């Protein structure tokens, strides 16, 4: 029993079982019954006179989409007063213009004053037109809408409450969208907020409280409150330090500063928060978001239901650890401290991590065993992914060796002077290497990636956010713990953060103010999804690894089968594995060609024939569906070319600019191939599998980049650095260098300081 305006009543229908709100955004996709509250600022135009028709049409489209998915949608709308104000102003202007034209002449029309319009009269004039507009819009999606007008008094009478409840349930049963609004034509003037001092009592004095009231009455799963601000902020929106609060918990009111209410409407943000908390207490999840921003209003409702990070989500479950935003801030602060360390200190951290990988081998393998057992029991991972997930003693030993290489090669990576110029007398300019900032590395099924990437970030002085796949959760947890243990020897364990919250990858890709570079490590589909989702953050990587081996007429018989076997069969799931084998036409029906085919059959490689290769055969293997295929398994395509020039053209047309190889003893042909193939890695008489940071002597890699700016190929420490310019002067000003100034530009190149020999 709750008291409402000093009248006790039951706030929840008798048939309602105690409900519980969703704990995480990712669960919102399961919401069946949803109330969308449209604030006055969302529904009305900027001049507060008339409706924002385009915005309203977009909202109706989203609601219709969700309704047609089988959800039960309800709308609590404002806008009747604004629509009525537009109609009444038009009538008054028309009436005044006629009278003044008769009595005063046209010259005074521009001086006409519009009288102050009473809100209830505006509501009476606008209610029918607003509903007619909604009906017309929903009809476009074959959805019927029904209007329900309520007042505070309708909730005082138990019979009226039951009638309202029954009406709404019947409309939802018939797949009709109820459009609900306070009956502003007869509603009394607003009361003081005396009954909103806590969340135990609420009365319908604005559409925020109405939406909350109905959400609880109707056992709604989700209440979406759309306003003209992005959500809740820890200081007034628009101020320099204002930060959007992603998740708001009961009891966090002291962390919020309320500004003024929106330009129109009865309820300000404080009223929205109190209404939201009241609904949350009643078992309804709540999200407050911006419904007016032109870039997001077209999909804000569907984004919220899909669990994307939009607005402020109200939750009763407070996680034990920091939010991902807080983790990113800690990583940035830790990265700056890391960059300020001496090179020997950063190397010391990496050496310590290498030692921990071997010292704690048993604990690491035990955690990895748990991941493997869970993956096998669920049966969700293909064999190549299970192989990536697996750790072994030899893998850990190789990791430790690679980390020590990184430590040894990182002595002068940060702060290295790469250019010195004397601009003028006593005015010297330097370009020096600096960390990029905060890196977000997203990886699948590869726990060995965590210490590799961590070591590279430490060596380059970057803060690091790691998002691993849930299939490697146990392995990632212990490897991250060991990384933080190594960092703690210099008190900067926060520089490397493992994201354990239920953050969707797409949401992480939107943190453009906190993350400077995203590096995906995983399937081509993962990389493509991240490249698509990243909003204003550069992505380093490759979406596909379509690697070619071209066998020339002058190829060595001994080298061909060895290189092809290693390129395709040593690790077929790797991005640097052979996918398309190009063979010179003159080699068809030769002993060398037969040896290649026999070797592939022995290794159980499934062969797909390219169009030209198939034309030479009476009975050919299955013809390839696309020459741009990355198989990632014991499969490959064989195609025929007439020359090295045609091989180069084929690679440019169908390749992914990753790694391409020529096998030949003709040096001139080889050099032509090396110079003309426009890929990140181009090899002569060597396996494609050499395209790897460890094998290149980089110690490890954060990935292989096929982009054409910043870094290309296996990316080690150098690819995680950028530069800044340092100018040292003595009272220099630009005006001294003008035509009649006293100084002249020199622009002399100066010698670079000696690099550390170690």
Automatic annotation (TrEMBL):
<dbReference type="GO" id="GO:0004350">
    <property type="term" value="F:glutamate-5-semialdehyde dehydrogenase activity"/>
</dbReference>
<keyword id="KW-0418">Kinase</keyword>
<dbReference type="InterPro" id="IPR036393">
    <property type="entry name" value="AceGlu_kinase-like_sf"/>
</dbReference>
<keyword id="KW-0067">ATP-binding</keyword>
<dbReference type="InterPro" id="IPR015590">
    <property type="entry name" value="Aldehyde_DH_dom"/>
</dbReference>
<comment type="similarity">
    <text>In the C-terminal section; belongs to the gamma-glutamyl phosphate reductase family.</text>
</comment>
<dbReference type="InterPro" id="IPR005766">
    <property type="entry name" value="P5_carboxy_syn"/>
</dbReference>
<dbReference type="GO" id="GO:0004349">
    <property type="term" value="F:glutamate 5-kinase activity"/>
</dbReference>
<dbReference type="InterPro" id="IPR016161">
    <property type="entry name" value="Ald_DH/histidinol_DH"/>
</dbReference>
<dbReference type="InterPro" id="IPR019797">
    <property type="entry name" value="Glutamate_5-kinase_CS"/>
</dbReference>
<keyword id="KW-0521">NADP</keyword>
<keyword id="KW-0547">Nucleotide-binding</keyword>
<dbReference type="InterPro" id="IPR001048">
    <property type="entry name" value="Asp/Glu/Uridylate_kinase"/>
</dbReference>
<dbReference type="InterPro" id="IPR000965">
    <property type="entry name" value="GPR_dom"/>
</dbReference>
<dbReference type="InterPro" id="IPR016162">
    <property type="entry name" value="Ald_DH_N"/>
</dbReference>
<comment type="pathway">
    <text>Amino-acid biosynthesis; L-proline biosynthesis; L-glutamate 5-semialdehyde from L-glutamate: step 2/2.</text>
</comment>
<comment type="pathway">
    <text>Amino-acid biosynthesis; L-proline biosynthesis; L-glutamate 5-semialdehyde from L-glutamate: step 1/2.</text>
</comment>
<keyword id="KW-0560">Oxidoreductase</keyword>
<dbReference type="InterPro" id="IPR041744">
    <property type="entry name" value="G5K_ProBA"/>
</dbReference>
<keyword id="KW-0808">Transferase</keyword>
<feature type="domain" description="Aldehyde dehydrogenase">
    <location>
        <begin position="323"/>
        <end position="588"/>
    </location>
</feature>
<protein>
    <recommendedName>
        <fullName>Delta-1-pyrroline-5-carboxylate synthase</fullName>
        <ecNumber>1.2.1.41</ecNumber>
        <ecNumber>2.7.2.11</ecNumber>
    </recommendedName>
</protein>
<keyword id="KW-0511">Multifunctional enzyme</keyword>
<dbReference type="Pfam" id="PF00696">
    <property type="entry name" value="AA_kinase"/>
</dbReference>
<dbReference type="InterPro" id="IPR020593">
    <property type="entry name" value="G-glutamylP_reductase_CS"/>
</dbReference>
<keyword id="KW-0496">Mitochondrion</keyword>
<dbReference type="Pfam" id="PF00171">
    <property type="entry name" value="Aldedh"/>
</dbReference>
<keyword id="KW-0028">Amino-acid biosynthesis</keyword>
<dbReference type="InterPro" id="IPR005715">
    <property type="entry name" value="Glu_5kinase/COase_Synthase"/>
</dbReference>
<dbReference type="GO" id="GO:0005524">
    <property type="term" value="F:ATP binding"/>
</dbReference>
<dbReference type="InterPro" id="IPR001057">
    <property type="entry name" value="Glu/AcGlu_kinase"/>
</dbReference>
<keyword id="KW-0641">Proline biosynthesis</keyword>
<dbReference type="GO" id="GO:0055129">
    <property type="term" value="P:L-proline biosynthetic process"/>
</dbReference>
<comment type="subunit">
    <text>Can form homodimers/multimers.</text>
</comment>
<comment type="similarity">
    <text>In the N-terminal section; belongs to the glutamate 5-kinase family.</text>
</comment>
<comment type="function">
    <text>Bifunctional enzyme that converts glutamate to glutamate 5-semialdehyde, an intermediate in the biosynthesis of proline, ornithine and arginine.</text>
</comment>
<feature type="domain" description="Aspartate/glutamate/uridylate kinase">
    <location>
        <begin position="32"/>
        <end position="290"/>
    </location>
</feature>
<dbReference type="GO" id="GO:0005759">
    <property type="term" value="C:mitochondrial matrix"/>
</dbReference>
<dbReference type="InterPro" id="IPR016163">
    <property type="entry name" value="Ald_DH_C"/>
</dbReference>
